[in-house]
Amino acid sequence: MEQGSTNVNIVSRTVQPQRQTIRNRVAFLEKRTPVYASVLGVLGILTLWEGLARIQVIPPLFLPSPSAILAAGWQMVTTGEVTDNILTSLMRIGTGYAIGAVAGIVIGLLLGFFRWVDSVLTPVIYSIYPIPKIALLPLFILWLGIGELPKFTIIALGVFFPVVINTYAGVKQVDPILLKAAVTFGSKYFSVIRKVILPAALPTIFAGLKLAAGNSLLLLVSAEMIAAEKGVGSMILHYGNLMMTTNLMVGVLILSMLGLLFNRSLEWLERKLLPWK
Amino acid sequence: MEQGSTNVNIVSRTVQPQRQTIRNRVAFLEKRTPVYASVLGVLGILTLWEGLARIQVIPPLFLPSPSAILAAGWQMVTTGEVTDNILTSLMRIGTGYAIGAVAGIVIGLLLGFFRWVDSVLTPVIYSIYPIPKIALLPLFILWLGIGELPKFTIIALGVFFPVVINTYAGVKQVDPILLKAAVTFGSKYFSVIRKVILPAALPTIFAGLKLAAGNSLLLLVSAEMIAAEKGVGSMILHYGNLMMTTNLMVGVLILSMLGLLFNRSLEWLERKLLPWK
Amino acid sequence: GKSAEKQGNSAEPANPSEPANTKPAESKSVSLALLKFTSNAPLFIAYEKGFFKDEHLDVELKWFDSANAVNVAVASSSVDIAAAGLTADFYNMIAQGQKMFLVADKGREEKGYAYSALVLPNDSPYKSVEELKGKKAAITTIGSTNHYSIARILENHGMSSKDVQWTPMNSVSGVVDAIKGKRVDFGFISEPNVTKAVDEGFGKTLTWISDEIKFQSSALVFSSKFISDRDASVRFLKAYLKGLRYYYDAALTKKDGKLAQGPNFDEVLKIITKYTGQPEDVIKKSFPFIDRNGKPDIDDLKEQIAWYAKEKLIVKTLEVDDFVDTTLLDEALKAAGN
Amino acid sequence: MRIVVENVRKQFIDTNKREITALKDINFTIAAQEFVVLVGPSGCGKSTLLNIVGGLLSPSSGEVSFEGLQGNKEPKLAIVFQEIALFPWRTVYENVIFGLEEQGASKEEQQEKGRHYIEMVGLTGFESAYPKQLSGGMRQRAGIARALAVEPDLLLMDEPFSALDAQTRTIMQEELLAIWNRTRLSTLYVTHNIEEAVYLADRVIVMSRRPGEIKNIIRIDLPKIGRNQEEYRLVFERYVDEIWQLIRHDAQEALKEGD
Amino acid sequence: MRIVVENVRKQFIDTNKREITALKDINFTIAAQEFVVLVGPSGCGKSTLLNIVGGLLSPSSGEVSFEGLQGNKEPKLAIVFQEIALFPWRTVYENVIFGLEEQGASKEEQQEKGRHYIEMVGLTGFESAYPKQLSGGMRQRAGIARALAVEPDLLLMDEPFSALDAQTRTIMQEELLAIWNRTRLSTLYVTHNIEEAVYLADRVIVMSRRPGEIKNIIRIDLPKIGRNQEEYRLVFERYVDEIWQLIRHDAQEALKEGD
Ligand SMILES: Nc1ncnc2c1ncn2[C@@H]1O[C@H](COP(=O)(O)OP(=O)(O)OP(=O)(O)O)[C@@H](O)[C@H]1O
Ligand SMILES: Nc1ncnc2c1ncn2[C@@H]1O[C@H](COP(=O)(O)OP(=O)(O)OP(=O)(O)O)[C@@H](O)[C@H]1O
Ligand SMILES: [Mg+2]
Ligand SMILES: [Mg+2]
Description:
The complex is a heteropentamer, with 2 copies of chain A, 1 copy of chain C and 2 copies of chain D.
Chain A: H1 2-15, E1 19-21, H2 27-30, H3 36-54, H4 66-78, H5 81-113, H6 115-128, H7 137-144, H8 148-172, H9 176-184, H10 189-223, H11 232-241, H12 245-273
Helix pairs in contact in A: 4-12, 5-6, 5-8, 5-10, 5-11, 7-8, 8-10, 10-11, 10-12, 11-12
Chain C: H1 2-10, H2 19-22, E1 28-34, H3 41-48, H4 51-54, E2 57-63, H5 67-75, E3 81-85, H6 88-95, E4 100-105, E5 108-109, E6 116-121, E7 136-139, H7 145-156, E8 165-168, H8 172-180, E9 186-190, H9 193-200, E10 203-208, H10 209-212, E11 215-216, E12 218-223, H11 224-227, H12 230-252, E13 254-255, E14 258-259, H13 265-276, H14 280-284, H15 298-310, H16 327-336
Parallel strand pairs in C: 1-2, 1-3, 7-8, 7-9
Antiparallel strand pairs in C: 3-12, 4-12, 5-11, 6-9, 6-10, 13-14
Chain D: E1 2-13, E2 19-31, E3 35-39, H1 46-53, E4 61-67, E5 77-80, H2 92-96, H3 98-102, H4 107-120, H5 136-149, E6 154-158, H6 166-183, E7 187-191, H7 194-200, E8 203-208, E9 213-219, H8 233-255
Parallel strand pairs in D: 3-7, 3-8, 5-6, 6-7
Antiparallel strand pairs in D: 1-2, 1-4, 8-9
One adenosine-5'-triphosphate (ATP) binds at residues 12, 14, 22, 40, 42-48, 192 of chain E.
Organism (chains A, B): Paenibacillus naphthalenovorans
InterPro entries (chains A, B): MetI-like, MetI-like_sf
Membrane topology (chains A, B): Multi-pass membrane protein
């Protein structure tokens, strides 16, 4: 066989076309696009939109131009309308989120730790989960009146479910080997919970908290359907009723930005609390 | 050392208290609750609820009793009201879901395959994602009228986002080792997509489809806020407006059951399509 | 006038058994749920001009977006008083055991006073109610005053509520947009939106509701909690009556069968403008009718209940005596005189 | 002191609801300061047995007991798993002192012993690193330090090195032996690797599969240190061969089975 | 035919933006029907080199080429990874014929070769099983069958057995050798395990780390079959020792590094 290969070798040396270089065939996996591409997309769409609005192909009532939205937004900022509404909404989201998150984590942990609680309550929670909160608005008013309470409740419910489900899942997904290790080293029941189950479930709990952040903003609009004079949600509803679409879009823009901010804050907190991730 | 152990052995044989049996210290991890526990929870809550309603602690308007809800539900079934509304809603959900899912998968795949599309469109999609659809209801009416189109659109949007994001993530998460294997065995670009990326992304796409199923039901109520005479969502709104809370709860119950059904069907489909999972 | 009223009030002999009347009444806080409608003018006036304060009532206005929410709020005693729309949900809550009390008129359709109308898109070919058969009607919701009025008008023209395609838009603005966008054949609109539709040129009136039917469409409603404080209730009604008459005399008086501007007209106009946020010249075109003595049209209430029951929009029929209490009004009237 | 495993039997119910016997008639003892290694083909019940001895699983019948423990105190156990069972949210130091913490040792004792055992496994300088910042070999060293720190009456190790690459493994085996020589803990060690077994064990327990029974117990008559030297090579290889012949058929069977 | 690796150098930019040289001055050839094994400590660049040869990574400089390939056709490559790189959604049979499918072979050819190579690796009867239903050893057999089925000009294997348990690994090594003897494919094989290298290789390329360079190329002068027999044991051990001495220091260094 050495012979065979040597033969071929000689042929290739003399004829040369017999030499084939290996090329990287997965180079396409590594291709990169320039950084400006991502800015380009957003800018492009904004320009197109502005252009369409300027030449009045689409009437401004139907789709206000970005510049008009910004101008309206700026004006609403200077009159203090925006700040006022944002503060009110932040208070509602903050309270509702806090209630929902704490309740979700506590009940999630109970579900995770105590099998009886788990068996009894989990089916109940899963069957209430998919009910659209907006369908229950009239009942919320009946039950909780028209003050801040029903608003907190709606937001808290939207936060509660993802948090409780993730907390529960986090507790259940703890690697049994870690539990076994802890027990072998002498940990007792509550020590196992505090030193193993809780920290192990934290990343999953955080994922729930992030999901919940999105939900809390979605439900803000529903919550502020109930007799709210202030708040970003009620502002959106108000301008929607008046068909002042430019101002409506300002509200929508604020919601998006709040969502972004909320998400970033949670990510920052996660990095602080879970340095070992 | 053999000696040492023999000594101790003799001691233990004579004195006996020196013998310590090892017990399972993680038995608590394996404790089970009886099967009836989960039924118990739901039944318990229903009974409590019925009881409270019967002794009129809570007025029936505030919280109709389960038996009243069932009775109303049965009556609405016999008049054909329920079937009619369910069929209309199913048609809307079906169409909206189909449009949203197909668009989501197609665009998700494009985002995943083509880096330029990715760079340009992904930021756009992520910034539109968190906008609550309900805030845009007035605009939807302006843009699309009050027929079926805006209803389909709202549901489709609710379905589109989780599907597009999951499809994209699914494509991006394909194990590079599988791509490398395929390329080594001679797969060309489109073959890699069809034979590796698509099947590898399928489970993640399915997860998106399941999330979307929940969303489509949540948004049904919002969609049917727009000039809908029929449909489960409009039925809920109708009875909410009339403050006929018992019938309202029938609607809520139907939504929960639709959610369950939808989820089960998708799980069944998943098992059929992904036998290798 | 203010001080005179006050004196009249403190000297009021009607109910000597009530201790609150003998000593100077301590200030009571009262929450009032209402929408930004012109028909709430008496309340705006009483509030703005301090009539409530004069009665030692510390009234807090709670603004709502939906009539349904106003009714639910008063039914559950979340607020003390509501400027309520008499809609199916109102009767339903009572039918299902909720206690609340209709105490006074707060707006009705009365011939000669144009307030709500059937409005057509501007290029609509229809000229009569009869032609609306089988057409699409924009309303807020089923069981609302919109729905009720149109259905009753249809019945008066030999049709039934099944003869049009109801299109519930879930909001007043939705109804206006549906007509504006020609997405429906007609719709129910109240002032000032009727004026706006005509002025902006996208709509025209087919007929005014008050030309077709009588309809007690809204009322002052007390929660069961508030009405138990009989003294405060009467005092509230006194202030209300004062506002109501101030409004009536300014805006609803007729000379030679035609509406004429009464005393304080400009002031009343300003107040309404302030509280509804609508432009003056739009407000000016039409004022909703309210009985000068606040007497509700009990017969019409009975008719409404019968109709809703027939249409199966309320869970069961009910007696007006269960929820109407005019004794308070009578007491207040006695004190107020004419 | 010694650990006695008597008539241990373990049955599981598998996913098809059939009863399978994982262990049957298991009898052996571990003397004080003895290093016992369990070898056997995949699925013969090595881990099951180790878990039963460690009090992490109940035997279906039979029992495991400690005899002649001083002062009648609870036996102290420590375990090292194949999978990196370090707590990811604890630094190396916090992991190592975990057992001491749970036993209520004083802060000073924790610090002293922590430092001592971290040094013993050669991790000085990495005290405040999180597990994910370490290589596989270093993680397993931390796992060993955590086990040693409680100074257990019995040390249990379930394939501690099987996730490491061959070269790291060789180095770790040498280190383990050196450490063991200083501590002389009674040890039950599970491995698939026959060379490793012969290299480390005082006695090798060879198991068979379906049901898992003890096939043979082989005493390794070689000096504890330096078994890899040239002079012992032939005897060493003979032990390896002897055990491989006992296992080979079962191992081939095991390979044919699905997961 | 032979494969020529000429002056290959590879630099990476690591997470701290520093440039690290993974490979430097790599020169060697693989002759037709030659089995070349790469050994070296963790992180020395073995996988990087194998990926460059397989066309899955571009060298920073230098090149890899096939000389004297018949008919000037594209060289056919096949690869077996450590990680189970079978397509989970394909059955064993569908996995094995993947390469044939991609080369446009006819259905008959696919069936014939599929059956042939499935039988060769001993998986007959498991054709329609999905990978997750197989044990680790069987999965790797399917991976080998998939690679053999395309009858490649060069077979690449990156630590194919390192995830298997010791006993399964021993069995698989024997089987691989038997199969290789029937097919005699030019092979580049990466491993950490020095015994495995000496057991399988015609030539062992020993690499050093930081930067990854070739330390030595050792020809194994033992008959290809039966190297584990008693008579060759001493020579075998000498090769193992020689290589271990070349690597030992680097391996200890590698162990000290974080992940
Ligand atoms: N919880 C369980 N339920 C059912 N069967 C089990 C369970 N744990 C183990 N088994 C079965 O018991 C047998 C022994 O398993 P065990 O894990 O102890 O083997 P092992 O020797 O450690 O194998 P390996 O070498 O692969 O780690 C196997 O057949 C396994 O499938
Ligand atoms: N994509 C990459 N980016 C940056 N550095 C890399 C990359 N791939 C490999 N390296 C570095 O190059 C060096 C060689 O890596 P390689 O995976 O080839 O080593 P190896 O010999 O296969 O190691 P092992 O035995 O652990 O598999 C390592 O230091 C590694 O950290
Ligand atoms: Mg095991
Ligand atoms: Mg490698």
